[in-house]
């Protein structure tokens, strides 16, 4: 929990008491590889902090799956639009490795905010983080080639190749696995 304490005290300017109040509301959940944390059609009632592991978020269209995000150690994880709107989500979140998540419910987070408005800093931080991630992804599809998107992915998620299969990386980039292999080969040849 050291990274979460550092977030509270260093990034958000809150104190250890705020962290302790928050931590007291958290529940822990172990998610096994290939198990879903949330499925489309359900309402997301939590924001989680990924203590360890790797998760992917994806949407289905007919029989195909399209990855739209990855979560690694110390990331916040949620079907955030559903969390905010209280409407069913259209995404799925699946564990790519055995993972541990500490999570807080919508109700408990709102109760903390009502008790102490300083918790709005945490809420804003989580919202800003999701907004920035989504904007970067959207812009990458509008502005960059597949090879440029791959380079940006490596910058955004250092070491992703050791944690996520090429199939899932290709899906996130919006290309077929064969195209990813070709891009990587051309990049290697051109170096």
Architecture of the domain at 2-119, CATH level 2? Sandwich
Estimated radius of gyration: 18 Å
Average pLDDT across residues?
93
- The helix content, as a percent range, equals 40-55%
The proportion of strand residues reads: 15-25%
SS-based structural class?
A: alpha+beta
> How far apart lie the N and C ends?
41 Å
DSSP summary: helix tally: 9
**Shape verdict:** globular
With strands numbered from the N-terminus, the spatial order across the biggest sheet is 1-8-3-6
The fold-level CATH name of the domain at 2-119 is: Jelly Rolls
How is this fold's topology laid out?
Layout lengths: L1 H10 L4 H10 L1 E5 L4 E3 L7 E7 L2 E7 L2 E8 L4 E2 L2 H6 L6 E4 L3 E7 H10 L3 H25 L2 H11 L3 H4 L2 H8 L3 H13 L2
Helix pairs in contact: 8-9
Protein name: CRP-like cAMP-binding protein
Pfam family, one: cNMP_binding
Tell me what the structure shows.
The protein has helices at 2-11, 16-25, 80-85, 106-115, 119-143, 146-156, 160-163, 166-173, 177-189, and strands spanning 27-31, 36-38, 46-52, 55-61, 64-71, 76-77, 92-95, 99-105. With 191 residues, the protein is α+β, with helices and mostly antiparallel strands. It has a domain at 2-119: Sandwich (Jelly Rolls), CATH 2.60.120. The strands form 2 sheets. The protein has a 4-stranded antiparallel beta sheet. It has a 4-stranded antiparallel beta sheet with strand order 2-7-4-5. Strand 4 and strand 5 (64-71) form a beta hairpin. Helix 8 crosses helix 9.
């Amino acid at each position: 929990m050291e990274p979460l304490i550092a977030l509270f005290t260093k990034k958000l300017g809150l104190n250890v008491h705020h962290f302790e109040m928050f931590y007291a509301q958290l529940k822990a959940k172990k998610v096994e590889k290939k198990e879903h944390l949330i499925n489309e059609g359900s309402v997301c009632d939590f924001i989680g902090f990924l203590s360890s592991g790797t998760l992917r978020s994806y949407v289905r269209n007919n029989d195909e799956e399209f990855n739209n995000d990855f979560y690694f150690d110390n990331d916040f994880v949620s079907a955030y639009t559903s969390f905010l709107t209280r409407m069913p989500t259209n995404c799925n979140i699946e564990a790519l490795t055995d993972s541990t998540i500490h999570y807080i419910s919508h109700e408990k987070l709102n109760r903390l905010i009502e008790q102490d408005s300083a918790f709005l800093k945490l809420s804003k931080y989580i919202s800003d983080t999701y907004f920035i991630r989504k904007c970067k992804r959207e812009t990458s599809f509008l502005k960059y080639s597949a090879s440029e998107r791959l380079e940006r992915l490596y910058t955004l998620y250092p070491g992703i190749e050791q944690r996520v299969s090429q199939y899932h990386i290709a899906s996130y980039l919006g290309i077929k696995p064969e195209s990813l292999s070709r891009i990587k080969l051309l990049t290697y040849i051109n170096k």
